[in-house]
Amino acid sequence: MTADGPLSIVAALRLAGQTHRLPPLEAQALLAHVLQCPRSHLYAWPEQHLSGDQQTDFLVLIERRDRGEPLAYLTGYREFWSLPLRVTPDTLIPRPETELLVECALELLKQRESATVADLGTGSGAIAAAIACEHPQARLIATDISAAALAVAESNFQTLQLHNIELRRGSWMASLKTGERCDLILSNPPYVAEGDPHLQRDGLPWEPVTALTSGPDGLGDIRKLIADAPPHLRPEGWLIIEHGLDQGSAVRQLFSQAGYRAISTHQDLELRDRLTKGKRPVDDVNNFD
């Protein structure tokens, strides 16, 4: 990919769209990232010329996008719950559908002025950050097994000036202390089956595979979360888990087999099963206290 002479903003965007068929919003996001300016600047100064380094950087980013690398990794940024979040290849890219998990959590927290909430497998910290912003009286615990992911989450919490989140490194419930109880435990765990052909599409080859896959049926980590959560839930505490669109029935069954109460599956805006929640099993049956 080459360009003859210095490019103006409008010419650079035209090159990205006409020659490389990059959608306009993606081209604008990449160019604004290179120029370190808001997107509105591109409209206000269309004839501004790029420097040699800026032009090279923009063309390189277009090539990388052509190869399928996610836009969020190219810019290092993704918006979630209207919050600007830093992302890297060490973290999953937050998806809009995961905002349903935040909505469900906030609904359950409505009647609780203070609450302890654990976000297990926090990645970039998107879920914990959204809940902390909306429920500043809550105490949040954000955990991940990846030190690199926790570093990204910590950076996001500091940028957003969120001081009610404690970061911990650990695998699922092992990151919670013995006897520690939460009003709400939630997670967007890996739930794609190993070898699923979707892993080769839509930018997924660039995302951390350990944060995507979980056993031959994709339910390995979900089983563990459901089995291990009760001792860490308060008597009226809830577990909420995001899962695949075809896993609702299987996840409800796992909740039911473990004795959870008030089990329900919530659908996203496209009417696809997206998350399932359940209330802690009764103490006299499971003897957790």
User: Could you state the CATH homologous superfamily of the largest domain?
Assistant: Vaccinia Virus protein VP39
Radius of gyration, Cα only, in angstroms?
22 Å
Proportion of strand residues: 15-25%
Q: How many individual domains? A: 2
Number of strands: 9
Shape: elongated
The CATH architecture of the largest domain would be 3-Layer(aba) Sandwich
**Unreliable spans:** none
**Largest sheet: spatial strand order:** 5-4-3-6-7-9-8
Main β-sheet description: 7 strands, mixed
CATH C-level of the largest domain: Alpha Beta
From the 3D structure, determine the CATH topology of the largest domain.
Rossmann fold
User: What number is the mean pLDDT?
Assistant: 91
Class from helix and strand fractions: alpha/beta
Binding site for substrate: 188-191
Domain Release factor glutamine methyltransferase N-terminal: 11-76
GO molecular function, one term: nucleic acid binding
Family: Belongs to the protein N5-glutamine methyltransferase family. PrmC subfamily.
